[in-house]
Amino acid sequence: MPFGVRAAAEADAEAIAALSGVLGYPPDVGAVRATLGKILGRDDHRVFVAGAPGEEICGWLHAHSCHVLESGFRVEIAGLVVSDRMRRLGVGRGLVAHAEAWAREIGATTVVVRSNARRVESHIFYPSLGYEAYKTQVVYRKRPAD
After folding, report:
1. Overall CATH class of domain 4-128
2. Domain boundaries along the sequence of the chain
3. Which of 5, 60, 90, 134 lies 20 to 30 angstroms, CA to CA, from 81?
4. DSSP 8-state symbol, 21
């Protein structure tokens, strides 16, 4: 099935939220719509969606650029999801290609992606695109104090 990739729009929030459920995140349309509204106008973020003409969105990718003191200017893929029915058809590859093209366009030296250790399919997918495992890390979280 042929598909295209385009920049996301606020109207895509519902489909993006639904696909987020595939990764186990609660599909909160309101939260996705609010976040999408905040990042779509920024120069340092890109959200791409994939879909066949006239069909519902079957994948999305969110990337952002940042300057890191020890490793330079890079683009990081913050999220990528493809619907179960469209996996292994080139959708993820197409979305990543758009992130990489954006990285080249803005002069980023590297594209980085983090993947949960439990996402076995990701640890096959990214190396198939030429990505190399760089390090293993533990991610810590804390909410800022009120």
Report:
1. alpha beta
2. 4-128
3. 134
4. G
